[in-house]
Amino acid sequence: MRVKKGYATRRGKIVVEDAAAYVRDLAQRLEARGRLGATRSFIQHGDVSVYGHVLAVARASICMARVLSRVGIAVDVHALVRGALLHDSDSSHRLHGFRHPFFALDRAEEDFDLTPIERNIIARHMFPLVPIPPACREAWIVCLADKACALGETIGGRVGGKCRMRGRGKHA
Question: Model-level pTM?
C-alpha cells in the first residue's frame, strides 16, 4: 500500500497536514483488508472502543513524530501509523498486558504483510509489562502514545473536568 502524495515522507520530514484525515484514510484501507473493523465492538479503558483507541494512538503518535522531526529525528510515518492502528487487534482479557501484544501481532500478521518496524510496534507496545523494550523509535512513540491515550480514556471521565486528548477541545 502506498502513502498518498502530500501526506508523509519516509525521510523524517512530516508533511501530514491533516493527521486525522490521514489516520482515517489508512484505517479505512486496513479495515477493508483485515479485521480492524471488528475492534469497533471491543470495549476497553472504561467505555472506549478499541477502534477509537487505536485511532487516538495513531493521531497522538503523529503529533509526537512531528515534534521529533523538528529536531531532526527521522520517523517512518507510514509504519508508525499502521503499527498504531494494528497494535490492539486482539480482544483477549486474561493477563491482557502480558500476552495481548503477541496475540495482536499474530492477528495482524494473518491479515497483512508487516514490516519489521510494524512488528516491533505491535509486539513491544506494552513495555514494561512485556520486559523487552521497543527496538526502534516508532515503537517507542506508539508505546508512549498508547499509555497517554489509555490514561486519558481511563480516568478522563473520573477526574474533575473533561480532558480532550484529540486536540479539538479547549481543555488540556
Answer: 0.82
The answer to whether the CB of 16 falls within 8 A of the CB of 62 is: yes
**Distance, CA of 8 to CA of 97 (rounded, Å):** 31
Residue found by looking up cell 519489521 in the block: 116
Closest to 26 (Cα-Cα) out of 69, 52, 58, 65: 58
The SS3 assignment for 49 reads strand
Is residue 123 within 8 A of residue 140, CB to CB? The reply is no
CA distance 80 to 83: 5
Residue 64 C-alpha from the chain's centroid:
12
- pLDDT tens-digit series, residues 95-116: 456 678 888 999 999 999 999 9
Angle, to 10 degrees, between the axis of helix 137-155 and the axis of helix 77-86? 40
Q: Which of 7-16, 21-30, 45-54, 83-92 has the highest mean pLDDT?
A: 21-30
CA atoms within 13 A on the CB side of 153: 22
Nearest to 81 by CA among 150, 156, 135, 10: 10
Q: Report helix, strand or coil for 97.
A: helix
Q: What is the separation, in whole angstroms, between the first and last Cα of the chain?
A: 35
